[in-house]
Design brief:
The complex is a heterodimer of chains A (114) and B (111).
Chain A lengths: L2 E5 L2 E4 L5 E8 L5 E7 L5 E9 L2 E4 L5 E7 L2 E6 L8 E8 L9 E2 L3 E5 L1
Parallel strand pairs in A: 2-11
Antiparallel strand pairs in A: 1-3, 3-8, 4-5, 4-9, 5-6, 7-8, 9-10, 9-11
Chain B lengths: L8 E5 L4 E6 L8 E7 L6 E6 L4 E2 L4 E4 L5 E6 L8 E8 L13 E6 L1
Parallel strand pairs in B: 1-9
Antiparallel strand pairs in B: 2-7, 3-4, 3-8, 5-6, 6-7, 8-9
The chains are: A mainly beta (114), B mainly beta (111).
């Protein structure tokens, strides 16, 4: 079966510090990968998605970036965090293929910026 | 993506069936109906999806009306662990297509 891992579960960072959140998927090959952010009391916002190694599409301009150095590894980064970067960050994966494929989410990282 | 209407909250007795309705009258022909749930402080969990036929898996059943303007998620024997916010999401769910989570229904399963 497939599993998705995100870490850390919680993170407190000062404004202006760098960020690196990691997501890995096991049990499948060449998945689509996604980074979402959920602000408090609000819905999910798609930040980035990737259909393959080194292929990153950005949905929202911001000071965050994403990378996919390996097939099943997706990393969310920032050089300098802003207060507005606080939120619940979720990684998700889906199969590549014809037809509809559900997205499966990790347990998320709760990021607080001080 | 189509707009959805779900009741903000519902209660269900433990062991009974929970029937969660969703209206999606503006759903387009190529959009599936997806259901997810989110337990507090966890990531959304995929439950089931369908296009026009009723679907069943180990978690739930999905009933879609013939005109596809509404659907019902059925949890046949609700447990306390089914307490969560349930989201109905019409989407094509292709790569790069964002899942839009609306207000959802907060289901409270009571002993």
């Amino acid at each position: 079966s497939q599993t998705i891992h995100q870490w850390p579960a919680t993170l407190v960072q000062p404004v202006g510090s760098p960020l690196s959140l990691e997501c890995t998927v096991e049990g499948t090959s060449n998945p689509n990968l996604y980074w979402y952010r959920q602000a408090a009391g609000r819905g999910l916002q798609l930040l980035f998605y990737s259909v393959g190694i080194g292929q990153i599409s950005s949905e929202v301009p911001q000071n965050l970036s994403a990378s996919r150095p390996q097939d099943r590894q997706f990393i969310l980064s920032s050089k300098k965090l802003l207060l507005s970067d606080s939120g619940f960050y979720l990684c998700a994966w889906s199969r590549i293929g014809t037809g509809n494929q559900p997205q499966h989410f990790g347990d998320g990282t709760r990021l607080s910026i001080l | 993506d189509a707009k959805t209407t779900q009741p903000p909250s519902m209660d269900c007795a433990e062991g009974r069936a929970a029937n969660l309705p969703c209206n999606h009258s503006t759903i387009s022909g190529n959009e599936y109906v997806y259901w997810y749930r989110q337990i507090h402080s966890q990531g959304p969990q995929y439950i089931i999806h369908g296009l026009k036929n009723n679907e069943t898996n180990e978690m739930a059943s999905l009933i879609i009306t013939e005109d596809r303007k509404s659907s019902t998620l059925i949890l046949p024997h609700a447990t306390l662990r089914d307490t969560a916010v349930y989201y109905c999401i019409p989407t094509t769910n292709n790569a790069g297509n964002m899942l839009t989570f609306g207000g959802g229904t907060r289901l409270m399963v009571k002993p």
